[in-house]
Amino acid sequence: TIFAYGPTGTGKTYTMLGNQDTPGLCTLTIQDIFQFIKKDSDNEYQVTITYVEIYNETIRDLLVPHSTYLELRDDPLKVNLNQNISNTFLQKFYSQNCYLKVMNLLFLGNKRRTTEATNANQTSSRSHAVFQVTVNSRSRTKNTEQENLQGKLSLIDLAGSERGTVTENRGIRLREGAKINQSLLALANCINALGDKSKKGFFVPYR
């Protein structure tokens, strides 16, 4: 998992997405994956992607036009961070065999993301965006004992932390900023708990 983290207006979304002239991390990742697949003639691959935003503690699928907010349910088959992903979200996978098609989905999804102008940023992201790539591979050779393999990479563009004295937000923007800061604090608490080896078995506050 790769996080883009920092104050609002510091270039997190640009780092992740870039533009047509300067590709970002998401674009370069997809490009490298498909270049690797093209060179590997011994295995067959399936690439699936998801792209969602977390806005005011709700989840919306950015790959679906006019997506409604998704209901969260606990999944007993999942553990740790994955256990809160909704069943609806898990069904909205997009299998792609073409780099350009994936890029088109990514940029269309980003246009659906919640953004607003603030004093600190003309196009401030008001949500966290999670772009997830899953790659499954298996040998093309029949009757092989080689197991199927799966890899998963999450690229997360976090909304920027805000100070009301700097942004001078009011009303809805102020409430959004409070939710953003609250969720960033919760994430920091989880990462600190996971990284503290002295607290073995310590409860990680995912929720």
Automatic annotation (TrEMBL):
Gene Ontology BP, a term: microtubule-based movement
Protein name as catalogued: Kinesin-like protein
Signal listed as a keyword: no
Record flagged with keyword Kinase: no
Keywords: ATP-binding, Coiled coil, Microtubule, Motor protein, Nucleotide-binding
GO molecular function: ATP binding; microtubule binding; microtubule motor activity
Family of this protein: Belongs to the TRAFAC class myosin-kinesin ATPase superfamily. Kinesin family.
Kinesin motor domain ranges (all copies): 1-207
Family matches, as Gene3D superfamilies: Kinesin motor domain
SMART domains: KISc
Residues where ATP binds: G6, P7, T8, G9, T10, G11, K12, T13
Pfam families noted in UniProt: Kinesin
Entry GO terms, CC: microtubule
